[in-house]
Amino acid sequence: MDELLNTPAIAHGLRRVETRIRRLAGSSALPGINTGADRIITAGGKRLRPALTLATSLAFGRTPDRRVITAAACVELIHAGSLVHDDLMDHATQRRGARTLNAELGEGKALVIGDFMLARAGLAAITSVSRPVAEVLAATVVELAEGQYLETTDLHNPHRTTESALRSITGKTAALFRASCLVAAICARASAEERARMAAYGERFGLIFQILDDLLDLTAPAQALGKPAGNDLRQGLYTLPLLTAMAKDPSIPHDDVEATLAALRQTSIVPDTLEYCRGLASDALAALPVIHDREIATIMYGLPTAYIDHVELQTLTRAS
Ligand code: GRG
């Protein structure tokens, strides 16, 4: 992931994206909305999704222009807006090392600031990028909402199917990774096949990203997570790694968080999940179109496996 974020062309593009995000997040007529939106934006975040937008643009031989920079900023604004809504739904108090908007300003203000960020991204896409890009982003917000809705309907349901869990994370997480790549492919006027290939790559990587996030929540030590493990379990969320482990070993208890976490430590949940993700990584690489730029090709081909290796290291640190 560091390779992606630190490559000079991408790092340079990300600085421009940052300026654009700040401008969009500060564009309300109401100073209170600007302060709130700026708060979550300046709190940090890896900027992984806009970095993928820039990498895709470079993969198609384009130096990211003003439209691609705006598209990347819109993607991050949608991500940050959905985090505001997610924190609100979870009653979370900390995000990106800072207090959440719901904790700081109350739920009502957090809700509409999240709305503002999502809507502002849509407006910028239609006015400053293009109609096809705006359509992709609007459809992605629909998928985010549907993915999150599915998750909510399955809370506290240990009989949730793995298909349902997969469908939910495809909407709530993978759709935005898919869009991050697709918008740049559209701006580069890539062929329909190239667009579909890049979109499939982004979606596979997004699935890996979410599944490993879910795995770490069940298996990583508190100091690696920055929060206690078992957060999802406490909320009644049965994630894909957990459902798969429970299907393999039906004796795993699931009515007591600590007992579940302890039982999971005796299972093969870590290698099984990593293996599943390596399968997705191989699908992601198979989807990639031809990339002529050597440096960008190396980064995009390496990213899924590098991320899986990085997470594997985090889980090994726990065992030692
Ligand atoms: C879009 C109308 C509308 C509502 C939102 C709440 C919701 C519906 C969607 C939530 C989707 C969500 C929070 C998915 C989790 C995605 C995820 C893995 C977030 C963490 O991403 P990182 O690690 O975060 O990239 P940083 O802070 O680095 O940007």
In words, what does this structure look like?
The protein is an all-alpha fold. Helix content is 77%, strand content 1%. The protein has helices at 2-6, 8-25, 31-42, 48-59, 66-90, 101-105, 107-128, 131-153, 162-187, 192-219, 222-225, 231-234, 240-248, 257-265, 269-287, 294-319, and strands spanning 94-95, 98-99. Strands 1-2 form a two-stranded antiparallel sheet. A hairpin with a 2-residue loop joins β1 and β2 (98-99). The radius of gyration is 19 Å and the shape is globular. The two termini are 24 Å apart. The mean pLDDT is 95. The structure holds geranylgeranyl diphosphate. The site of geranylgeranyl diphosphate (GRG) has 19 residues, from α5, α8, α9 and α10.
Strand order of the largest sheet: 1-2
The proportion of residues in beta strands is under 5%
**Model regions low in confidence, pLDDT < 50 over at least 5 residues:** none
The total count of strands amounts to: 2
Helix content: over 70%
Largest sheet: 2 strands, antiparallel
Oligomer: single chain
**Which molecules are bound in this entry?**
geranylgeranyl diphosphate
Given helix and strand content, the structural type is mainly alpha
Outline: globular
- Continuous helix count: 16
Helix-strand sequence = HHHHHEEHHHHHHHHHHH
Tell me, rounded to a whole number, the average pLDDT.
95
Computed CA radius of gyration, to the nearest angstrom: 19 Å
Beginning-to-end CA distance, first to last residue: 24 Å
